[in-house]
Structures are given as C-alpha cells and as structure tokens.
Amino acid sequence: MGSENEISPADAHRAPPGKEQQAAGVGILLQIMMLVLSFVLGHVLRRKKIYIIPEASASLLIGLIVGVLANISDTETNIRAWFNFHEEFFFLFLLPPIIFQSGFSLAPKPFFSNFGAIVTFAIFGTFLASIVTGVLVYVGGLVFLMYKLPFVECLMFGALISATDPVTVLSIFQELGTDVNLYALVFGESVLNDAMAISLYRTMSLVRNNPSGQNFFMVVVRFLETFVGSLSTGVGVGFTSALLFKYAGLDIDNLQNLESCLFVLFPYFSYMLSEGLGLSGIVSILFTGIVMKHYAYSNLSQSSQRFVSAFFELISSLAETFIFIYMGFDIAMEKHSWSHVGFIFFSIIFIIIARAANVFSCAYLVNLVRPAHRKIPAKHQKALWYSGLRGAMAFALALQSIHDLPEGHGQTIFTATTAIVVLTVLLIGGSTGNMLEALEVIGGDTHSDSSLASVGPITNYGGNNGYVAPSYEEEEEESSSSGNKIKMKLKELHKSAASFTALDRNYLTPFFTSQNGEEDEEAEPLNSSRSSFTSSRSGFHGQSPYSS
Amino acid sequence: MGSENEISPADAHRAPPGKEQQAAGVGILLQIMMLVLSFVLGHVLRRKKIYIIPEASASLLIGLIVGVLANISDTETNIRAWFNFHEEFFFLFLLPPIIFQSGFSLAPKPFFSNFGAIVTFAIFGTFLASIVTGVLVYVGGLVFLMYKLPFVECLMFGALISATDPVTVLSIFQELGTDVNLYALVFGESVLNDAMAISLYRTMSLVRNNPSGQNFFMVVVRFLETFVGSLSTGVGVGFTSALLFKYAGLDIDNLQNLESCLFVLFPYFSYMLSEGLGLSGIVSILFTGIVMKHYAYSNLSQSSQRFVSAFFELISSLAETFIFIYMGFDIAMEKHSWSHVGFIFFSIIFIIIARAANVFSCAYLVNLVRPAHRKIPAKHQKALWYSGLRGAMAFALALQSIHDLPEGHGQTIFTATTAIVVLTVLLIGGSTGNMLEALEVIGGDTHSDSSLASVGPITNYGGNNGYVAPSYEEEEEESSSSGNKIKMKLKELHKSAASFTALDRNYLTPFFTSQNGEEDEEAEPLNSSRSSFTSSRSGFHGQSPYSS
Lengths: 548, 548
Fold this sequence. Notes:
22 helices; about 75% helix
C-alpha cells in the first residue's frame, strides 16, 4: 500500500510503465464500486418497495454525485479519462447486449398478439413524433421562441429525442404487475423505437452532409432500405444459428463449452455484420434475439439453455446499470451551454405534444382494425403516453451530435437532451408507480376483475397464459360490414400477422428446431431457466406476473 | 447491402457519423469470425486427436494468416486499428479473466500438496531464470556474440521471457491425462510465474528509470513489498467476498441475479484495487480466485454456483483464444527488426539454459526436503523443462518494452520475443504429446502401474482423489536424522504449509463458509457444475482424468 508513494518520485522525468495502468486501475475500480453500490441500493429499494427511486434513477444519481465530487476534488485527468462517455464504447459494447436481451427475453405470445400495434407505435408513431418535434422546434426557432436551428438539425434532434428508454419504466411495470397487453405495448414500442430513432438520426445526418440530390422520397427509400436490410440480416443470422445448433450436434455432454461460446458470439456477429454493411446493428441484433430465442434456443442442451439465459441477463443487467452511472457521471463532467434555457423548456413541451401525437393517433389507427373487445382503452393510451421517458439512446445520439453538428448547435442539443433525460428519468421514473395506480392498470391477470374487464372477456385470460388470442374469424365478419377502405388495408396487414403464426407453427418451428411445432414443449426449458436465475428487470422473462 | 456503396459518396468531404462505426463493425466482425473459426477448428482437431496443432497454435496461425492477408490486401487503416495489440487492453481486460479462472479452477488438493514445490519453481526458479537469461544476454553482448543491451535491459528481457504460458501445454496434458503431480507442478508454476515475471519486469523498469539510489537490496525489498502487498490484497478481497456471501443472504430464490452480478464483479475489483494501489493486479486476482473458490463459492446458491463456474470458464476461454488470434495478427502486422537474427538465435539457447537452471536446481532443492517416495522423478523434471513455452504474457511485456526502452533496444527485444513465442507455441505445443509419450508420464491414475510407481505407493492413489497426501509425521522423523541446515529450513517451510491445511480446516472454512469444515461437502457442487458445463481447456476443473 505504501509502495504507491514510493513509486511516485520516478514519475517526474518519465511516465513509468505502470503509471497509466494505475490510473486505469483507479478509474475502473471506482466504476466497479459504483456498479456494486447501484446493485445493492437498487435491491434494497426494491425490497422496501420504494418505487420513487427506481434502480435507473439510483444509478443515475450515484453517477451524478460521484461526478460532482470528482469535479470538485480535481481528480487527475488520466483517471477522469476513464469516465468520459464514449459513444463508440456505448454503441459497440454496452448497447448490443441490452437490445439483444430485450429481444431474447421477449415472451413471444403477448408480443406477437400485439405485434401490429407495436409496429404501428414504434415505426409510424416514432416517425410522426420525430417530425412533429422537429417541425415544432424549427417553428419555435423561426418565431424567436427558442434557439434557432436549421431544419435538418431540428429533425435530427426530433429523431434522437424520440427514442424512449426501455429499462426504467418496465422494471416498475414488472414489479407492480400491470396489464399484459399494456406491458407488451410499452415494452415492444420502447425497444423498437430505439432502433427507429437511430436509423432516422443517421438518415437525417446523411441528408445533412449531402443535401444536394436528396428529396424526401429518396430519404424514405433509404431509410426503408436500411431498416429492411438490418431486419433481414438479423433474422438471417438468427435462422443460421438455429440450423447450426440443430445439426452440429453440440448438445452432447462435453461440448457445452463450445456450444455456449458459439451461442454467445452469434448476436454480436449479427450486430457487427450489420454495422459493417452500413446498416443498423441495433435492428439486426433485436431480431436476432427474437429469432434465436424462438428457434436456436430450443436446440441447445438444457444446461446450455440455462447458462445462456443467465449469461445474457447478467451481461445486460451490468450494461444497463453501467450506462446510467456512466451517463450520470458524464453529465456532471461534460461542459454544458445553459444559455438556452428556453430551448430546454420549449423542447420539453414539444416532446410531450409529439408523444401525444404519436400515442393517440396510432392508438386510433390500431383501434380502427381491432374488434371491440380488444381495443386499446383510453387509460392504456394515457399510460403509454406517460411512460415515454428518455434514456441512454437519446443521450448517446446527442453526444454524437456534438461531433456531427457545428459548435453551438450540437452543444445546445446535447444540453437539452441531457436535461430531458435527467428530468424524465427522475420524475417519470419516480412517479410511474403512482401513475399506474391512478390509472388503475395494476395487477394484470391476478386482479383482472377491475382492470381487464374493459379489455376483453375474463375467460380468455388465465388459461391462455394471460393474453387474448386474436380471433381472426370474428374480425373478418366485422370488416365486411364496415366498408372503410383504410380499415380494410389495415385488417389485411393484421391478417398477415395471423398467417405468420400459422407459418411459424407449421413450417418454421419444425424446420429450424428439433421440435414438432408444439409450443408447450418449448416453454419448458424456459421455465427451468426461470427458476434457476431470475431477473426482476427487463423483459417478460423472469418471475413476472405474466407467467401465471 | 447495396447501401454501403450508396453511402460512400458522402464520405468525401466529411467523415459521416456512421463511418468509423462501420470500420469498427468490420474489424470486430473479422475478430468474431476468427474466434468462431478457432473454436470450431480447435474442436475438430481435438476430436480427431491431432495433438500436433493444439488450439493455441491453431488460433495463432489463424491470426497470422489473416494478418498476412490483411497486409497484402492493403486493408483500410481504420479497420486495422481494431487489430493492433494494445497492451492496455490485454492487461486490463483479457488477462484478468484468464488468471482468475486459473486460480478459480484450481483443484486445491493436488495444488496445495505440491505448494512448496510450486512456489519454489515459480518464485525462486523464475527469479533465477530471469537472472541467468539476463546475465547470459549481457555477456553475449559484451563478447559481440549478439546485439549489445545495457545490463538492466538485459534483466528486463530476462524477466519478460521467463513468463511461461499456462494455456497450451496444459490443454494437452489434460487431454492426454498426465500424472496429477506433474500436472499440478506445471500448472501451478506457469500461472504463478506470470505474476512473478510481470513483477520483476516492472521492478527492473523502475530501476532503469531511476538508477540512482537503488541498490540490489532495495530492489528485492520493493519486489517483496509488491508481491506480499498484492497477495494480501487478493486474499483480503477473497475473504471479504466470502463473508459477504455468507451473511448477506443472497442465496434465496429471486436474488440470484444480484448474487451472480456481485460475484462476477469481485475478481475484477481485486485486480483493479491492486493496480490502483500500484501493486500487481495479476497476483491479487490469482489469489482472489483461489480464495473465492475455496470459501466464497460454497456460500452461493447452487444455481449461482453452476452459473458462475460456467461464466468464468466461458469468459476465460474467449479471452484465451482471442489473445492467440490477436497476437498472431499483430505479429504479422507489426514492423520487426530482423537485422539481429543472432540475438534471436542466442537468446533461444539462453532461455533453454535458464529454464534448465530453474527446473533442475529447484527440483534438487525440493527433493532435499521431500521423503523418498515423494521426490520429483527425473522424467517429471524433464517434462517440466520441456513444457516452458512462452505465450501472451511475454509478448505483451515485450510490446510494452518498445515504449519503455530506446528505439533499437525495444524493437530487438520485441522481435526476439515474437520469434520465441511463435517458435515455442508451434514447436513445443505441437510436440508435447510425443514428449509426454516418450517420457512415459501419460495416464495419471488410470495406468498408474507404469508411470506412477516411481512417485509413491499405488495405494495412496485412487482412493484419495488421485493425489498423494503429504505425510508430515514421516518427514519430521527424517529431518531429525539428517543434520543439514538448509534442509531443516526448507522443512520448516514445508511444515508451515501443512499447518496451513489444519488452519484451513479448523478455522478458516468454518469462519468463512456456511459449512463445518468438511471438504467433501464442498466438492459436491463442483461436481454438479462439471456435469453441466465442461471444459477441456484450462485448469483441473472439467472432466479431467483426475476426477477419478
């Protein structure tokens, strides 16, 4: 312990070999301590049922406090260097496990039964919210209400600020046990809209760098190209892995190390393949996660199944917690331009409006095609509107915008985003519990009498793993009676989702897995993994109220 | 897919945001592909029982080939940047899991019964080998046999080149099933001497930077200070974790996520604490591994036990394979100074001599104190001598020496080390199987008749988990009959190891674990983890021939 001081004299004329490493050691040590503190604090808070400070808020606050202390105490710069939020590190190493885990922990039934609605919210809704925010900010600038940004930059800001955070609210939803359908909507939307926001941001950024020869149509085409390309890549890698694990015969006894190694490498492979092709890694890895869980996972040996679920959960928990700490710390360290408080204030108002435009218009569209007993009730729409807090994705993109945009513009966007992230995480995160109680959407299938009566007949719940199976025959009848054209189109889309379920059962599952398409069989290993390693954090997975 | 080309035109006047990330994507993608290839190739080679190319050689060759291809094909520099061997990355992220896993997977019985010998080989022996190599290289320079280096730099080279690799040979040993005691010696020595070599290297590097006011005595004191400090830190963290897991009550059902998270963070905490204090992280994490396995591990819930063993094994397998690939790639990319072929040639001869000095003199010392039936037989000594191949640690330190030393010196040391690493990994790694057969040390407790008869009475094997329990009473008698002074001293040391076993059983185990000091109880969860996730790579752990 004393040797630290003894070594120091040598530093004067030349940095000795161990010196940077020592700084790195201290930096990483602090990070580990904050991680441990967050985990323990989060645990204690959850135990004591204090929902005002969810784990994400706790991590953010810990990061903020340590950051402020480090600022005051004038820490050495080479230790500080270990805390700067590097977008590259975020996008390459912290984000992939979280998004993969989101896809991997997805309980397919509630997700797919709400698939149409989720896609509407995430893709059309996020697009709408981005445009609305962008236009409002631009108009706000034009009428001297706030700092004036060029139109493309307003759209970039709109895109990055439309990414809602999938971590914080969901952990509370899960803790309190909300309605399954609401949970599926919030979960699906927040995961998919991250992918959407990053794609939009990058597209806008390309438009900005090369404004000539770009028209709106081309932008949309390019965006769709990227999205579809990434989705195909992700699904393709997922199916490849399923076939590999089906036929390579690695599930015999002493090859499980190899099996787990390969399984763990696939998601990352998908992410990097997509990024390498200039597509969106986050979209790919999300779909790789869904496909791998649905097909490849059941081809693993039982012990590997148990291991990989626990592994991905651990890695994503660490990454999630780390992101909030890291963000808190960086917010305290980074220089901000507080000169544009107006910008922050009005952009908060605008994102609330944009979020409302997203949720209520999409809900209206979705309700057009849904049968009466499956319409999204108003209180669910309100909950969805409320739960749009902003997290790490918005922060990381805002940090990137500092490099992408001219000095003042990037700084303003970054400061505004930072403020929005901190406010929404602390305020919305802290009040979600009360909001859910006020809206009476707590207690999915357990107290279904009060909250779910409005959604559908109670008999559909419980027996069928707690979700309403879409009854397509019924819908068809209805659609023929109402001659609305949009409604018809939307219903066709809806039907294609139903035919997907049939396709899955009859062709995909038998082809890609060693099973015969009986889904109950697949559910079993999942159950065993649940009991061995349970999370109360992300996804449906874990002892959530939905596993009935 | 086509969008990659579409995006390119925009790059010309400004690097777009996705561009560096795309390069990173391609770089990491290549790395993952090489990893997968290595795993699969290693698996196939092992299945076909081709011991001429062990997994490490395969990885090294894959890295070399891809590196040469990348050199020829003139890859973009920002993709290449992802392949440069960064010592910082190696020391902070790749090395810790490997060393921890070495300690964690240590079967305590054979290790502790040979503890005296292992420490002698690793500490005294490595010290001796470093000095011998250093002096010979210095003398070689003086008589114009080879490139002339200053004396301190010769000692630095001696230190770094004395680190033997714990991965390659051991995987073959395990595959073929060698004698338990030989395995314990090779394993223990190669793990501990990495720690020793890095400590020596750093000490020498400090001496070099601050030559005034340093005498030999001070250097030894500082070295011991570092070593003892690091050891205490590691053991301290290990014991702390044991107490935490004993009393925190995290082994109940739905806290296992938290439990695993914390368990996984502790080793890294130990490493960084040590580095932050200016001590040796590698020594700390090794002992944290040993202590955590021995005490903390048994306080975990069963499912967490299963998970953490599999987790550490996975992480260390990935890190190991990655290191060899990375090293191969870097060797192909880095510029070398081949002008001093003489230096390479003679240093190879010198390290063979130094290794002989290490092994045979230490074996002589050890045999002085051991009773007749436990002496290290000549063929084990030869096997130990032969198995001293050099790996990633030597490479990483040599790479560091480029920064630490003046231009020509660092380059020469680096090139020589590179050549030695490649030659020893490929030649020694490839011929270990034949060597073991020639020395007739194959088949530990299964064909004990032929190979183990010389070590001890067969009755001691088999029943007692395949290792010879040291019989201290017997020794004491002997020591009183021989009046040799050194022998007496050494025996006292030896006895202290015995009293440690008693201390462990009577005080440490009951205090730090939830058990009552019955070691058989502790062995059980280990067995269950074996069946669930088996490695044939590092450590005693796994379905090795020793689990009888």
